[in-house]
Structures are given as C-alpha cells and as structure tokens.
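Holo model, zinc ion. Inputs:
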Amino acid sequence: MSALPEFSKAAVLRQFKEPLKIEDVPVPAYLEPRAALVKMEACSICGTDVHLWQGSLSLKVDLPVIIGHEMVGRIVSLGDTVRTDSVGQDLKVGDRVIYTHTSCNNCFFCTTARQPTLCVNRRAYMYETMEKTPHLMGGFSEYGYVLPESGRLRVPDSVPSELASLSSCALRSVMNAMSQLGRIEPYETVVVQGAGPLGLLATANAKVRGARKIIVIGSPAARLEMAREFGADVCIPVEGTTPAERLEQVLSHTQGRGADIVMEFTGVPAAFNEGLQLARKGARYLIVGQLGEGKVEIQPSMIVKKNIQVIGSFSGDARSYALALDFMAAHQDDFPFERMITGRYRLDEVNVALERMKNYQEIKPVITF
Ligand SMILES: [Zn+2]
Ligand SMILES: [Zn+2]
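Output:
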C-alpha cells in the first residue's frame, strides 16, 4: 500500500436513534490476501439503514457500527492474489467495484443447498463493530474494506457510480427475488406492493421479463406516478383507498381472478394479508420487503385453499450483483433510474439524509464523496 491514510472519516452509530457521529476510524495497515481497500465513490441510503439506526431490525447489530451498505468504491489497494472479479473480468487498482456480504463456501447452505445468502458464517457490512479490525465495514465512510470472502463485481464504465450504488442492494435484492420467483409468463398480471426503490426496480424488471400487465400499489402519489415510467400499467394509491377498494380494482383488471403474481416490497406487515387477498388461486406470492419485527395475524387456510406459493427472498448473492449491474447497463435508456436519486449529500450531512429518508421525503438519497 502506498500513501494510504491512517484514518478514514466515517459516520458511526454508537446508540440507536442517536445521530451518527463523524469519526476517524483506523484504516487497516494490512490487507488479507483476497481483500481489497476501496475509496468510496458513493453510498446510497436504504430503508434498512433507517431501520438499523432506529434499532428496529430483526437482525443482530454489534454497536458501534459504520452504517451504509449500498456502496461503490474505487480500488486503491488489492490483495496480491486477486486478478479478477467474481465473474472473471480483469480487476486492478483504479477499477470501481460493488461487493457482497460474505459467504464461506464451506457450509451446508453454501454448498449443498446452494443458498449462499443463508451461509452460517455470513459476515455482513454495517452490522459488525467498527472497533475491531478491519474497522471499515460500512458504506458511510471515505474508505471501505472488501473482505476476502466477499464477491466483487467490476462496475461497467457506462454505469455511473450512483446507479452502481443502488444496484448493490436494491436492484440485487430484486434480481435475487426474480430468480427465486422463476419465469413470468406473457399472460401473467403482476401486482407490485410498494412504490419505493425496490418496487420501482421490480416493476422495470417485470416489464422486461414480459408481464402482460403490471399494477403498482403504493404511496405517496409522486412515487406512484413515477412507477408509470418504470413500466406500470395501472397505479393504485394506498392513501385514500381501503383494502377492499384496492382488491376491487385488481379484480377488475384480472377478469375477476386476482393477480397471477404478487410481489411485496413495502415492509409493512399488514401488506402480507392484503397480498394474499389480491393473489388469484394458484398464484405465486414473493415477499421481499419484510425485515422488521412487526407482526400480523393471518389465516393460514387461505394459502392452502388458494394453493398459493409463498416465496421469501433475502438479500442477494454475487450472481444477483452481477445480474443487477448487467440489467442497469442494458436498460439505462429504457427506464429513468437516475430519477430515483432524489438527493445528494456529503458525508457530514448524513443525519439530514437519514432523517429525510425516515420521513419519506426521499426515494433514494445518496452520499457522495
Ligand atoms: Zn439496502
Ligand atoms: Zn457458508
């Protein structure tokens, strides 16, 4: 390593709900053989960041942490043995990369089940304390450490850093969910619950994959309007309508049957029951947005009687990151992805950005460096 700083400015969360503090966090002096150090280009903000900050995630968090997990960085130092990224493209200092939470390749889930996001030895960015090496485990930081076991994907030159950033969480989660869903047939109508970043990206994806009709249910109105530009044929506002009225509308667009496919991206527990209602008999129901601790009462017989396939989808593996970057590169002219970036902030403005995200005043704000 040549001329790397000893410290990186980073936004550290020491107590849930408290503002993040900009602190000097040590840059590791030693790079493990397959690791990399990146200088952050951008880190977009996700609903999960807000939930972690508020202490409302149903995942373990080892405070104090550097928040931020949708990052794209430029490699400033690379382990000696690394020549390529996770799909075999040349990788060198100066390239931009997005990188995955880790999977070990040595456990039941990695190998037998081939579900690496469920790896028992998984290490995830922004959940590990910044007090232990390698310290730089979050995205709201000038520098970031890419763990040896992390998948890493070179960002194509045609994809701007802000869009690569949102590919590294929102879009890769959608790509993973779509892989788990399987094909969308040309006669199938898709209902997308939620018009946030995942809902919009899923809408674009369903469009490209040939859905017959796409109905987006969401709020607020401005976001919902944007869904049309991402391929929605019908938009139904949540505000000012009852679940019964929304069901009525979905039925009217599906010859009274209900949706062939329902996708949940709201994170609101009550949306699950509504989705079960909106689904036709024999439908597939994909659940992606629920990561909180909220509960809801359900009638399990509805799943049986309607013969519904309920599919949960968590995070995304290196394949999903690769597919996300490819989707972004291929469809930049088809959908206004850049319009999802609603605010740009410096690192020292991170609390303002998080607060605005929490209040639904942003779709996808991004910290730029
Ligand atoms: Zn995220
Ligand atoms: Zn594993």
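The two ends are 21 Å apart (CA to CA). Residues 156 and 329 are 7 Å apart (CA to CA).
Archived with the compound record.
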